[in-house]
Amino acid sequence: MPRKYTLTGCAIALALLSGCANAPDSGTDPAPATASAHQPQRDGDSSLWHVEGSATTLPEDDPDVIALQRAVALHSAAVDNRSADNVEDTLEAEYQHYSDGFNRMLEDQNHRASTEALYQDHELQTRQLGVAWTTSSLSADRNRAVVGFESIFEFTAGDETYLDERELELDERYAQPREITLVRAGEEWVIDNIEKGPLRAAATLGP
C-alpha cells in the first residue's frame, strides 16, 4: 500500500511560518505566533526514548538514537538557518534527508519554487538557536522512528509588512514543536514525514 503523507497540500517552509501541524497551502495566511515561555521538561534520570508500543525505554547513547538525532539536527539546521541568499543551497541540503516518496510529494507541491519565492520576495532570514528534544519512539524492528523536538529560532531579517501581518518580530525567540518520522534506508535514516505545531514566543532555551 502506498505511503500516506500527512503534510499534503503544503510546503515545509510555509509550515514553518504558518503555525499549523497540517499546514495550509500557500494561499492561506499564517496564524500569529502565540506567546508562551513554556519549554519541554523532563526528569533528569528519565529517557525521552521508548520502543514503540511498549514501556521499554532506550538510553540516549543507543547507536540508533544518536544516528536519528543527528539526522534530525542536520535537517533542522538546513531548514532553520535560511535566507534569501542561501535558500537554494539550503534546499539542496534539506532534500538530501528525505525518502524518495517524501521527495516526490514535495515536488508535486512545487516546494522548491514556493520556498525560494517565500524567502526572496519577503527578504526573510532565520537563525536557529537550539533544539529541545521531546518524547520519541523507535519501532521494535528498528526500521522506523518518530522523533519529537522543538526547534528554537529567530527571524533576523524580513519585510516589515510581512512580519507585522503575522505578528512576528525580529530577534525574538520562537519555538515550534515538530514530529519527524524517519525510516531506515540501508545504513542511513531518511525523513518520511513531518508534522509541525504552531509557532510560539519562547523566552528562554532552557526549562
If you had to describe this structure to a student in words, what would you say it looks like?
- Residues 1-23 form the signal peptide.
- Keywords: Signal.
- Residues 24-49 are annotated as: Disordered.
- This protein is of the alpha+beta class and 207 residues long.
- The chain has a domain at 60-201: VirB8 protein (Nuclear Transport Factor 2, Chain: A, Roll).
- It has 6 helices and 8 strands.
- Strands 1, 2, 3, 4, 5, 6, 7 and 8 form an 8-stranded mixed beta sheet that branches.
- A hairpin with a 5-residue loop joins strand 4 (125-138) and strand 5 (144-157).
- Helix 2 runs antiparallel to helix 3.
- The longest helix has 18 residues, at 63-80.
- It starts with 11 loop residues before the first helix and ends in a 6-residue tail after the last strand.
